[in-house]
Every structure is written in C-alpha cells, then in structure tokens.
C-alpha cells in the first residue's frame, strides 16, 4: 500500500475517529486505526467493539499510488501528523506485513503494523428502523440528558441512554436511579411506530462529540441526520466535507458512527414522573447556580448534601454543613406557592440540571421525601426528576 496525502485532510479524518480506538483493550489491534486504500478513497476505521467510527475520504487523482490495507497505532499516527508542518504532504508506504514508513519532507517515521485482515468490524444494522431528525435537535436531545446516565451500575441498562419512539415523538431518557433527565422532539414518522433502543454511555458521548463538531463546521446552518436503528446496532452517517457559500456541506469526508446497542429493558420512566405536586417554586437559574456553588463549598465531601427550605414569605433558605461543624447559609428570593417544605439534595444533581437550563426554572414538589420535577419555565419538552436525600 502506498498513499500520498495532504496533512490537513488526513489529520481531520483521524481527529474525528481516533477516540474510538482503545489501546487498553485486550485485543492489541484495537489500539490501531485501519487504513483501507483504493483508487478513489481512503477509509479509516477505529473501534473498541462497542463503538466503531469510520471516516471515508475522497482522494484526488494520483493520491493512491498502490491500493492496499494496513493498521497503524492510533495515538502515534495522530501525534506524527499533528507534529508535521501545515499543508505538508505525507507519504505512507506499507513496506511489509510488520512495518510502515511515513515520510514528509526530510522527516521519516517507521511504525510497527498489524495485519488489516485481523481488524474486527462490527457490521451493519439489520431490520433497520430509520429516523430522520435535524442535527440541532439531535444534539439537544443528547446534550440535555446525557449527564444523568449511570457511570457504573449492576443494572447495566442504566449505563446508557434510552431512545424511545412513540406518538410521532423521539424521547431520550437517562437515569442513574437518583435522578432522571428527559427530552422530547417531534419527528416525521408513521403514527403507529413504537420502538425503544438503549445506546451505551461511550456511544452517547461519541455521538454528542461528533454532532458538536458538525455544529462548529456548519455554524448557524442545520442539516438532517438519519438514525438507522437495527436489532443490535445504531448507525449514523455524518458529512464533514467543505461547506459551500449556501451552507451546504460536501460529501468528500463522511464519518459513519456504528454502536452496539445494550440488550436490556429500560425501566418505565413514565411511572417515576411526579404528577400530584401541590407546591411550586419559581427561581432564576443563574442566581440559584451562584448560591449553590457558594453554599456547597461547606457541604459534606461525599454526600454533597444541601438543604432547601421553602417558606411562605417568598424566600428559600439554602444551607449546608459538614462533619467539621462548618456551615453555610444563604437566602434567595423566589416565587413560591404552597405550604412550607424542606428538602435535601445532592448539590451536584441540581447543578447538572441548571447547567442545561436558562432563565427561570420551576420546581414541582409534594413531600420532603418525594421526588421533585424540575423544568425551565415554558418548556415542557425537557423535564428533570431529582430524588431528595437524607442528610
């Protein structure tokens, strides 16, 4: 295999997929990127057997000197490309089955390789259910719920995000058992379509990263994204080519995201949504964020507990203390309806919700030990549930 390519084109493709490579995996080859070269295109693939990212780069005439395939260490390849001068021309030559030579100007790098035929491929989804949604709305659905996913849990289905299609809506849900985040968007599908799929945590984070990168490229322009859900996999293709004067993006660089779905049943999130709430507090997101940041300094390091005490005089007292007998108290003006109530929360749980809201936020409450529903004023498409804690 022999390839001559511009540094910027190669580095852009590598940057988009390299995070899927896993050099700590038991299969050493998964620390490599597979390069498959043909006359007209270069296909780069990185995978950890849970998430696979493929970048297909259209090549100019003469770039392919000799077709073939090779796998190269992902981190080393990326670092070498980054270190070379801007607009440098890179030549990659697979000398034999064990070595590959990279040259650029007066620089020469020899890298160890592993056989391309040994690189595992996830495959394509079967029995596809295709959903088309704008890239902006997809990013919103993922970004405003992903923080509530469990990091580690024996209930493995909680370490991912639910994609639920019903009543011509796509709903994303994440929960770790202590809090829940939900976002909805209307989509153009058949009214009878009902489908659920659980996307693993790493796949969710990679999908968010890619859609964010696409947002930077497109700016204020939006584009449609098709989510292809199969029995075992989700696949999404995203264009990362050059943007023309009309805001349209070219297809000279396509990134295909493929992720293995979690085989499990997600809990019925509708059952945990608080409904019989008789107390309502309206607070400014920015002011509450500042108060919590200050008060939480003196909270217990493990529990991060803060107490919110709502009174009928239009104030909430927010306080925290710890084992060293330190204490912080601050009073915030609010609009409050209902009997006085005192609740204790993990401060980080409230702060996470506030980080994805703005303006005024509402807290719907019933009892001190019952879950609380939080949403941005006037926004019913994003809802958050937080369980109180004992301090």
From TrEMBL:
Belongs to the beta sliding clamp family. It comes from Psychrobacter aestuarii. Residues 135-268 form the DNA polymerase III beta sliding clamp central domain. Confers DNA tethering and processivity to DNA polymerases and other proteins. Acts as a clamp, forming a ring around DNA (a reaction catalyzed by the clamp-loading complex) which diffuses in an ATP-independent manner freely and bidirectionally along dsDNA. Initially characterized for its ability to contact the catalytic subunit of DNA polymerase III (Pol III), a complex, multichain enzyme responsible for most of the replicative synthesis in bacteria; Pol III exhibits 3'-5' exonuclease proofreading activity. PANTHER family: BETA SLIDING CLAMP, DNA POLYMERASE III SUBUNIT BETA. The lineage of its organism: Bacteria, Pseudomonadati, Pseudomonadota, Gammaproteobacteria, Moraxellales. It is found in: Cytoplasm. Gene3D superfamilies: 3.70.10.10, DNA Polymerase III, subunit A, domain 2. This is Beta sliding clamp. Residues 1-122 form the DNA polymerase III beta sliding clamp N-terminal domain. Keywords: Cytoplasm, DNA replication, DNA-binding, DNA-directed DNA polymerase, Nucleotidyltransferase, Transferase. Residues 270-390 form the DNA polymerase III beta sliding clamp C-terminal domain. Forms a ring-shaped head-to-tail homodimer around DNA.
